[in-house]
Amino acid sequence: MTNRDTLHKQEIFSLKNIVVSGLVLFYIIFIIIPISIAFVGSFHQWNPLKGTYTFNGIENYIRVFNNELFWSSLSNTLVFTFVVILFRIIIGLGIALILYSSIVRCKTFFRAAFYMPVVTPLVAVSFIWVWMYNPQMGLINQILGTHNNWLVNKDTALGSIMVMTIWKDYGYAVVLFLAGLYSLPKDCYEAAKIDGASGVKLFKYITLPLLKPMTLFVVITSIISYLQTYIQILVMTEGGPGTSTYVTSYLIFDEAFVKYNFGYASAISFIMFIVIGMLTFISFKISSEKGGQGNE
Amino acid sequence: MSSKAVIILAIGLPLNLQIECCKAYFKEDIMKRFLSIFLAVTLLMTLVGCSGEKEAEKEIVNDTTAEKNLPILGDNVKFDPNILINNGEPIEIEFWVWDSKEIFQSIVDEFEAIYPNISIKIVSQAWGDYWTKLPLSIQGGNGPALFSVHNSQHDNLINNMEPYDIDIEDLKADFTGVEGHVIDDKVYYIDYGMMTGSIFYNKDMWAEAGLIDSDIPETWDEFTKVAQKLTKKDDDGNIIQAGFNYNSDVKSIIMGLNYQKDQLLFKEDGSTPDIDNKIMNENIQFLIDLYDEYGVGSKDFGISDAESFGQGQSAMVYKWGWYYNQLSNDYPDVNFGVFRTPVPDENVPFAYDRYNGESTIGISAKADDASKEVAQAFIRYFMSNNEALKELCIKYSIFPSKKILADDEEVINHPVLSTIKPVVDRLIWPGPFPGIIETTLQQSFEDVIYNGNDVGTSFANGNKKVITDMEGISFTSVEKKYKHIDNK
Fold this sequence. Notes:
The structure holds two protein chains of two kinds.
Chain A lengths: L2 H10 L2 H27 L2 E4 L4 E4 L3 H7 L2 H33 L6 H13 L2 H11 L6 H6 L12 H26 L3 H9 L4 H12 L1 H15 L4 H6 L11 H11 L3 H34 L1
Chain B lengths: L2 H9 L3 H11 L2 H23 L40 E7 L3 H14 L3 E7 L2 H13 L6 E3 L5 H4 L10 H7 L7 E2 L2 E2 L3 E5 L1 E6 H6 L11 H11 L1 E2 L5 E3 L8 H11 L17 H15 L12 H6 L5 E5 L1 H9 L5 E4 L13 E2 L1 E4 L1 E3 L5 H15 L2 H11 L2 E2 L8 H5 L3 H4 L6 E2 L7 H14 L5 H15 L19
Parallel strand pairs in B: 1-2, 1-3, 12-16
Antiparallel strand pairs in B: 3-14, 4-5, 6-13, 6-15, 7-10, 7-11, 8-9
């Protein structure tokens, strides 16, 4: 073997190639192959417990689109996602601005305190909030002086879960917005102050536009996360009362792991895959357009 | 002083002093390494400590003695221990359970004492994991030879189950309800006990309300009056003690109410669910009226009936036999009693309630012949072991299907079983119907009581949903095999 061959062989087995190959292999084994199997399975009547795997064409997809529960679940999912993201951003940005200001001491402590709910396990938080919403002994009713049965009233059940989710996740936005605020160039503010801009105008014309990339990042990651919400539904209401708090991920869980209709659940999953992909694409498009406009 | 001596001394000191010692005698990088190794060793020991004890494995040897001079057990289903199994050669099989490992272990120990060449290893899995792991492993051919069965999973198991090598007529002679389990002249499992619902009541609340034993209601009208006496409200009219609570578990009571009024769960064909009918609507309205009209409870008070009764908030609940154990274990301070579920009037109803059977043990059809031989022998031993069967029945508050145990003193005196005995002949079994029927019943009821939808519409939608969900599930009801079906 010549020196050139030896060198070439060393290049093939370089650390870089090994790591990249490992990543590619990981994605193929744990993402591409399972997704492909699920996609093919969505065209079958598939029950792994009974060992049935019968091709039925697009029957699963037709059944999904004809299923009222799918549409109500999708509606709940979109409402849930929109409301939680909105409040996550408003509360997160508001608290970040307060923490960024000079009036707050012990910023590190508050930053950690606001982030604590984010790192607390969602299952544990959900259980605690179930107790807080208890109509007889719950903290919420005691504080508000009400007797509401928050989690089994169709008017308040989904909203109650949203409140819990907002409480748990706003800290994520606080930390990100705070990092964004610290990275903003000071000279823009100085120039604006020289031009006579006040606090509100500074926020509206300087802070907000400069924070847009961070805001869009929070929105995009939140969309991807909340469109797949199901743990809090599973723990807090199990989709009830009736089916009024079903979301699409919970519907997929119900069909796959309660009824073992893997084919039907796979069909719903792929429809959601397309929905999430489209929303993410739109978000990226808006992001790049805004970025392009900003660069003009 | 040497560094080793410092380490030895430091281990015995409080943590802060340990650190100070280390700082005094070590350079920072060596100290970091020491602390890292210490933490790693501590973590490793913690993990080792957390691992379960490995059970001592039984030593199995050849069995060379066929004639063991042991008595033959059983009445019609007999077990003759005076044989060799697997030609006396050593063999080990697995037996999967989700509960009662101790009781099954004692039965296994007795069986193994007879056959020194056999080892049956009991593997216990949590309920949720059990019903994914078991069907998949049996299908794959590497599952246990023996396994506990629940009939709600019938559809997922039956294709991989081996029929019993026991004469069906012998089974029928010893056990009730065998007929419902016969499939093409074969039996894959039967019920060793029957569980049904009863009313659990708080005796202290009963006495406080001035009620005595003779006030125990037999009809729903009497029940309503008693429940009203047991209900307490505050000055604002809010319930502080419910006379009767059915929240979160209407699915359990509603089928029984329907059977009391001649309404079957399935249509004529035996496969199509029928939860959209006049009797269902009547009974749902009755339950709603108990809260809204008679004020004996509230949909917003005690959202879990089981927990509410245990916490002393509700005076009466309708629960199945398993609740007796839960109360005894989780709420030992509750002074409770049990009485039979009331009926519409003084006449004997079509059925007092439905029952569900606790199933005997299943055999894997994919096990090898030797394992199947052991499994069949063990099943026969289990079915003819009256003491073991009784112990299981008492533990789960289920009425024994084995006829000879029906008059056993322990059974007769059990608080739950004593209510079942007089009516055991009038309990109907619909068959191992899929769990989605109960789920849909509960969701449809919640649509009415919490979402304010019309009873008829909710249950009509529920009926459509459950029919769709049952497509692809091969199930035929055994309601028509009910002894008193002609009384409908």
